[in-house]
């Protein structure tokens, strides 16, 4: 089976609007017509490379590639020309779609020549390049069966109301951007594309288009809540707001719940390699946790919820032993939607279907998954494993802190020292005292560093390696070139601009 079946079902079952962008709306049947013409154009090519923003041509190109039986590869069009050229060179014989080419996909006339739909569910449907926050980007291979497993497990065909609309502001090269198209089209919900994100414009679009569902990454949610301030969102049609793609600070979630009192929130945890979400904290979970005075239930507001149907989650130690509830370790997942396969590397799951997410976390006794962050981000100070997320959430409760990243830098005595890199304003000593009152001394930042912004990927993931490298360069530059004799480690400044 091929993902084009989703478009075929939508086009034959109802005549609903499928996508809207820039004032233009296409029906599902129109998408199907254009995709068949695109398939004629793509046949004989190796892949389809999509280098554009959110646009009605995106689904046309995706389904055109599926009908032609070749992979669809959306690339980060914001990369520099050298980086893009290197990625394009990895796909000889590709059909390359740049922004100037997109309008042409929407102007086909007449009937396309009929061709049978390829039915090999093992064929690669989409190639997505990972964000590369802890390593070089890798080409994750998502086969037709992976994508269809997620859609069929999480959605009921045609279940949406005719007036339902989903706002997609995530870029087309993000797995959530891809899966939002497939799931909404299958459910019969109109997709409203936003090519660039700005919080005020996002709110205005929700109101203007009567948006009922939306998906954002945590940095987007933080910016929306910051724009609203003490006001409520005033988005009466918005029934469901999902956030995911990176860890969302708990203070941001709590603020959003106050600003969107009539909206159901969903925290969705997944990776590129898992074809979207594997765990979900649903609206009822959010409401129960926010209202509960029981610490264990209240804490679930900071979790990513429980596994979706058909998905298994295990926590293992470094030796592969499965750990019990409450024990922290490495997160492994298994299910029909999970690929764990990279171009040139094959299946990295060991053949048993389990995929190592490279995240650390724990499961509580009721199966809620709590994430500590990436395994590479764990700070080891004096033999103790410290998760940056716990400290960052505390720092974000300080009124002068807008964003926070906690890093571990080499220290001759403790192995690593804690450095808090903050966006905002405040006295470093007071901020350290604020953290110490709420955390153990071993988790109090040794150093506070201010900078105007934190480096992130276009989808909002924090680039910790970039921060570590920048701080290491500053420390090296501050060292005397030729010390007169043996010296001990210099005491770092409490605050600096990076």
Quick overview:
31% of the residues lie in helices and 25% in strands.
Explain what you see:
The structure is a single chain. The longest helix is centred in the N-terminal third of the chain and has 15 residues, at 28-42. The protein has two domains: 4-372, 3-Layer(aba) Sandwich (Rossmann fold), CATH 3.40.50.12780; 378-478, GMP Synthetase, Chain A, domain 3 (2-Layer Sandwich). The protein has a nine-stranded mixed β-sheet with strand order 2-1-9-8-10-11-12-13-14, with helices on both faces. The model is unreliable at 479-498 (pLDDT under 50). It is globular. The chain contains 15 helices and 25 strands. It starts with a helix and ends in a 20-residue tail after the last helix. By secondary structure, the protein is α/β, with parallel strands linked by helices.
Which range best describes the helical content: under 10%, 10-25%, 25-40%, 40-55%, 55-70% or over 70%? Answer: 25-40%
Given the C-alpha coordinates, what overall shape results?
Answer: globular
CATH superfamily of the largest domain: ANL, N-terminal domain
Annotated CATH topology of the largest domain: Rossmann fold
How much of the polypeptide forms β-strand, as a percent range? 15-25%
The Rg value, from CA coordinates, equals 24 Å
Which secondary-structure class do the elements indicate? Answer: alpha/beta
Count of distinct strands: 25
Low-confidence stretches: 479-498
Query: Given the structure, what is the number of helices?
Result: 15
Strand order of the largest sheet: 2-1-9-8-10-11-12-13-14
- What is the CATH class designation of the largest domain? Alpha Beta
Terminus-to-terminus distance: 52 Å
**Most strands sheet:** 9 strands, mixed
Number of domains: 2
Name of the CATH architecture of the largest domain: 3-Layer(aba) Sandwich
Give average pLDDT, whole number: 90
């Amino acid at each position: 089976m091929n993902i084009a079946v989703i478009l075929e079902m939508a086009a034959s079952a109802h005549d609903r609007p499928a996508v809207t962008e820039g004032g233009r709306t296409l029906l599902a049947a129109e998408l199907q017509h254009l995709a068949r013409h695109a398939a004629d154009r793509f046949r004989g090519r190796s892949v389809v490379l999509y280098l554009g923003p959110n646009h009605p041509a995106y689904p046309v190109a995706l389904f055109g590639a599926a009908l032609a039986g070749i992979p669809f590869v959306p690339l980060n069009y914001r990369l520099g020309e050298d980086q893009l050229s290197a990625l394009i060179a990895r796909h000889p014989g590709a059909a390359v779609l740049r922004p100037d080419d997109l309008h042409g996909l929407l102007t086909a006339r007449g009937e396309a020549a009929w061709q049978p739909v390829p039915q090999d569910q093992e064929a690669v449907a989409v190639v997505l390049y990972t964000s590369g926050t802890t390593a070089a980007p890798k080409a994750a291979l998502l086969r037709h069966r992976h994508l269809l497993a997620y859609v069929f497990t999480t959605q009921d065909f045609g279940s949406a109301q005719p007036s339902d609309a989903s706002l997609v502001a995530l870029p087309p090269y993000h797995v959530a951007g891809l899966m939002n198209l497939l799931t909404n089209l299958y459910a019969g919900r109109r997709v409203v594309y936003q090519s660039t994100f700005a919080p005020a414009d996002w709110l205005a679009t929700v109101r203007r288009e009567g948006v009922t569902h939306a998906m954002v990454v945590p940095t987007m949610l933080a910016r929306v809540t910051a724009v609203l301030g003490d006001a409520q969102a005033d988005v009466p049609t918005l029934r469901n707001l999902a956030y995911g793609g990176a860890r969302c600070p708990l203070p941001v979630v709590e603020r959003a719940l106050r600003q969107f009192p009539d909206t159901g929130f969903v925290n969705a945890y997944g990776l590129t390699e898992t074809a979207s979400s594997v765990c979900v904290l649903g609206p009822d979970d959010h409401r129960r946790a926010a209202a509960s005075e029981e610490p264990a239930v209240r804490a679930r507001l900071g979790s990513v919820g429980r596994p979706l149907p058909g998905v298994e989650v295990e926590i293992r130690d470094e030796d592969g032993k499965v750990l019990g509830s409450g024990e922290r370790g490495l997160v492994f997942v298994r299910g029909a939607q999970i690929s764990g396969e990279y171009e040139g590397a094959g299946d990295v799951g060991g053949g048993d279907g389990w995929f190592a997410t490279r995240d650390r976390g724990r499961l509580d006794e009721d199966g809620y998954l709590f994430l500590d962050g990436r395994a590479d981000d764990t700070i080891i100070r004096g033999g103790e494993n410290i998760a940056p997320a716990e400290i960052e959430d505390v720092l974000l409760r300080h009124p002068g802190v807008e964003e926070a990243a906690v890093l571990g830098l080499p220290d001759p005595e403790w192995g690593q020292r804690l450095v808090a890199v903050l966006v905002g304003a405040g006295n470093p000593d007071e901020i350290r005292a604020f953290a110490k009152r709420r955390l153990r001394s071993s988790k109090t930042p040794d150093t506070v560093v201010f900078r105007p912004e934190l480096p992130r990927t276009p989808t909002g993931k924090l680039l910790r390696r970039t921060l570590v490298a920048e701080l290491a360069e500053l420390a090296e530059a501050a060292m005397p070139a030729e010390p007169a004799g043996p010296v001990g480690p210099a005491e770092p400044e409490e605050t600096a601009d990076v």
